[in-house]
Structures are given as C-alpha cells and as structure tokens.
Design goal:
The protein is an alpha/beta fold and 528 residues long. Helix content is 38%, strand content 21%. It is built from 17 helices and 18 strands.
Length: 528
C-alpha cells in the first residue's frame, strides 16, 4: 500500500536548459509547463526571472495559465551582500514573478563563501536568513537549495549544518541538499542525509547531479533515508552530465517502492512525456533509457524471446504497459523461430499459415543482417520481405534501370538529374526529373513514372532521410545504410536500403516505401 508522498520538483525549464544541447523557446517552455502540470508534477521551476528576458516573459505569460496541480516556482539566489533584502534586485524579481513558491540557493561550502562571494562565514549566514525571512514575509512558500551541500559538509560539517539551521529559523518550508558537483557516493550521501535529518525539523529534499552516474541511485537512497522532496528533470537533462532523471526516479519510487510521486492514473504517461520533451528539445530519445526508452523492453536473442513468450517476467522487471511503454521483439542474425513468430504476430501476419517458409525467412533475415540491413527502424521493409517470401506480395512496378547525373559548374549550384526506366502494369515508362541532389531527383522521376497509374502517389511525402556508414574502414568504398521515413495522412512508413552505392541504397529504400504505400493506402479514406 502506497502511503508516503514524495514531492516531485522538476527543474527542466531552468537547470535542464543549462544542458549544452538544449535551447527552449518561450512557447516550448509554456507547453512543457502545461504538460508537466497535467502529468502530476508538484513543482515546476520555470527559470530565473531576473537573469534574462525570456524567463521574465515566461513568468508574465504563465500568469494567464491555470495550473491544475503543480505550483510554479521562480528561482534565484539569496540577496547580494551589498543590498538589503528589501532592495535586492534578485529578490524583487522573484516577488514580481508572482509564483506561489520560490526556490533560492545559498552557499554551504566555506570554499565558495570565501572565494566566490568573498565575504565572511557569518555574513553568508546573514544573507541566507535575511533572504528567506523577506520572502516568507511576502507570503511565499520558500524552498531553500543548499548549494554544494555535500561537498560543504565533507569540508566543514558544522558550518554546512549552520546554513541549514539559518534557513530553517527564518521559515524555509523545505531544505534541499544539493550535490552540485555530482561526485558524492551513495554510502556517504546516506550518512550525511541521516545526520541532517537528526539536526532539523523542516522537510528535507535532494537535488543531485549525475557526474558520477549515480544521481538516480542516490536520489532513491536519499528518499529511503527519509527525504520527502526530490528535484530532477525529465530525461535527466542538465548541465555537464545532467540531473537526476525523473523518468527513472519516479518509477523506481512509485512502481517499485512504497511511495506516491504522481497520481496513479498518470504513471503510464511517463514514456509519452519523455518523448514529448525530447521532441521539443530537438534531441533523439535515448533508446536504452530505463523504463521509457524504445529498447527498455526490447528482446533480440532467441532464447530470451522464447522465455518471454512463456512468461514475460523471465526477462522483464516490470510490465512495460505500467509506464506506457511496450515490448519489442527485434529480428536480427541472433533471431530464432520465437522472434519471428512473435514479431509476425505483432505486425499482423499469421505466419503459422506459412510454417514451411519460416526457415527460409530466418535464413534470409540473418543474411540481410550480415549484409548490413537493420529492421528495427524499418519495419515496413521487413513486412515487404516476409510477404515476398510467403508469396503474398503483389508487384506494382519493376525497375529496368536508372541513371543519375550530377553536374557542377564553377560556383553554380550543382544540378542533379535522374532517368528511370520501369515496367508499370506491363507498360514501359521512361521518365526523367531534376532535383535538389541525386536522391531527390530519383524520387521525382519515380513519382513521375507512377503518377498516371497510381494518382494517389501524390499523398505520400518523404519526411526523413538518414544515411549511416556501415564499415567506415573501407573509406569511400564503404557500405551505407539508408533509412527513409515517409508519411500519408497520420500513418508512417519506415524502410531501409543497403549498398556500397548511396544512390542504389536510396532507390531501394524509396521503392520499398512507395510499394508499401500502394499496398496499404485506401485513396478514399487517407486517414486510415
């Protein structure tokens, strides 16, 4: 029975944006805040309102949003030594943001007090006390972030604790212990957390960075030691090696532990939220991320798949559906009959009708994998291959030949032209087209040849094109793998081609895409 509520504080919109690869627009930040609110995050740190125009505008526009669950948080520092709390610009900006809660950080490590602030240890205590008291006097919930707390404690435990006691005495609602450099080991973190919990009465939380790849483990350990507030980011985004990844922290605490982090009916949204955030960050999802990655419940070895088909708990620590993910069975040179049967069923094939063809399909797949094909991201090429071997495939066209010319004159833009000779419905077609590069020219020539036979081809659009070098040691003679994603209506088609010639690999992926489209589309009901 879950009975221990843990406050979840997401700092993606502030700390997460300090990642070298991330720059959210104002619109992105507003969308993310609303998604996190709907997901059930308790606190959403929106940014530092006194530091830049974008964060100032964010808090202005956020005032028009009605958050159903989360409290929006403005972030800043304690007052500067040269200002009183009443006249400090940072504290004024925090109050002007008009958020129900604020988070301020202060120095816990004597090294920072002496070398960064260049003030006395006593004056630093006064900065903390005055700042918290001023914000409380103005009606704010105050979350005090003790920056570099664990390093400070290891250097001078008495002083580090004094900074916390000052914030507590001034009325802080939560004391957050920060592992700002991310170097604290789990056993020493537990020891320090337990010391703090014996010294203060205010609820304690943690904000942990991942420089030792231990942020998630340390966060879970801190909660088990008695912390009730957790800070982190979706996908673990953040400066340097990132922050504690809430996509791992939340399931570990709520699904596998005795804690309540978000509403029970929202836990299966965590995979969607993870992918939504990565999309807005313009970063590819990390496939092997626990719980939410596309490979988190993927099985490739035949022995594994055979066992999973009998009882999924043999190789899965939780049911993927709990976190909104799904089981994947991959076909490769490691595949066995179990992989093929499972995958065919997932793709909608009754492979048992073709039981005598299964060995041939497996042999073909293993040879294709050896040649450089991968079907994990090109399932429609896989479907087409199986249908061809089982005799269920209708050919819509066949190639007699193609030629690609690329012409470059001086400083002019290169000119590409493709000519294709094809047999379509027993008729010969010979067409040519220009394009922005050889692949674009081939695509246009192919469509030109098919248009009068299959006018619905105009509904198919190419949305992504990727080239991967397979054996780079062969230099310019290396094989390449081309992955193409096409779309029609709300459907996606993913295909693959492999060759030492980029044009040939592209042609294979293109024609697989077109062939599967013609097989699948209903021109009268394109959304289906």
């Amino acid at each position: 029975m879950i009975n221990n509520k843990i406050q979840i504080f997401d700092t993606l919109l502030r700390d997460g944006t300090q990642s070298a690869e991330i720059s959210f627009s104002l619109e992105d930040k507003l969308r993310i805040a609303q998604e996190l609110d709907g997901f059930g995050i308790d606190y959403i740190e929106g940014g530092w309102p006194g530091s830049n125009p974008k964060d100032h505008l964010f808090f202005e526009q956020a005032k028009t949003i009605e958050f159903k669950h989360a409290k929006l948080v403005a972030f800043g520092s304690t007052r500067r030594a040269k200002y009183s709390a009443e006249k400090d610009p940072n504290l004024k900006a925090l109050l002007d943001a008009e958020t129900p809660a604020v988070a301020i950080f202060g120095k816990s490590w004597t090294l920072h007090v002496k070398k960064a602030l260049k003030i006395s240890l006593e004056d630093n205590i006064k900065l903390i006390s005055d700042s918290v008291a001023h914000l409380k006097k103005n009606g704010k919930e105050v979350i005090y972030d003790a920056e570099h707390f664990f390093d400070g404690y290891k250097n001078n435990p008495d002083y580090a604790l004094d900074t916390l006691l000052a914030a507590e005495a001034a009325g802080a609602d939560t004391l957050v212990l920060c592992d700002t450099n991310g170097g604290t080991q789990t056993l020493e973190l537990i020891r320090i957390v337990k010391k703090v919990l014996k010294s203060v009465k205010t609820p304690v939380g943690v904000h942990l960075h991942n420089d030792s790849d231990m942020a998630v483990a340390n966060t879970v350990a801190a909660v088990n030691a008695g912390c009730v507030h957790v800070q982190g980011t979706i996908n673990g985004y953040g400066e340097r090696c990132g922050n504690a990844n809430l996509c791992s922290v939340i399931p570990n605490l709520q699904v596998k532990g005795n804690y309540q982090c978000i509403p029970d009916d929202q836990i299966d949204q965590i995979t969607r939220i993870s992918h939504f955030i990565s999309e807005l960050a313009n970063l590819p999802p990390v496939n092997n991320m626990p719980f939410v990655g596309t490979s988190a419940f993927a099985h490739k070895g035949g022995i594994h798949v055979s066992a999973v088909m009998k009882d999924a708990t043999t190789y899965e620590h939780i049911k993927p559906e709990i976190v909104g993910n799904k089981r994947e069975v991959l076909l490769s040179d490691l595949s066995g009959i179990s992989n093929l049967v499972y995958k065919a069923d997932e793709l909608g094939f009754d492979i048992k009708k073709h039981i005598t063809k299964i060995p041939q399909i497996i042999r073909t797949l293993k040879q294709k994998e050896h040649d450089g094909y991968q079907y994990e991201g090109a399932e429609d090429s896989l479907k087409l291959l199986i249908k061809k071997i089982t005799g269920e495939w209708q050919s819509y066209f066949s190639l007699e030949g193609f030629r690609v010319l690329v012409e470059k004159e001086s400083t002019a833009t290169p000119r590409s032209e493709a000519t294709v000779r094809m047999l379509v419905n027993d008729q010969k077609e010979h067409t040519a087209a220009e394009g922005d590069g050889p692949v674009h020219a081939l695509d246009r020539a192919l469509r030109k040849a098919l248009r009068k036979f299959y006018p619905e081809i105009k509904l198919l659009r190419l949305i992504d094109y990727k080239v991967r070098v397979i054996n780079g040691n062969e230099a310019t003679g290396a094989k390449v793998r081309v992955l193409i994603e096409s779309a029609y209506g709300n459907k996606r088609i993913n295909t693959v081609g492999v060759s030492t010639n980029t044009d040939e690999a592209s042609w294979e992926a293109l024609t697989d895409s077109v062939s599967w489209f013609l097989h699948s589309v209903d021109p009268n009901n394109i959304e289906n």
